[in-house]
Amino acid sequence: GEAVRSAFSHPVGGRPLKEVAQGRKDICVLICDNTRPVPHAILLPALIEGLIDAGASPDSITVLVATGLHRPNEGEELRELIGSDRVLQTVKAVNHFARRDEDHVLLGHTPGGMPVKLDRRFVSAEVRIAVGLVEPHFMAGYSGGRKLIVPGIAHEDTIRVLHSARML
Question: Which of 10, 104, 109, 137 is catalytic?
Answer without folding.
Answer: 137
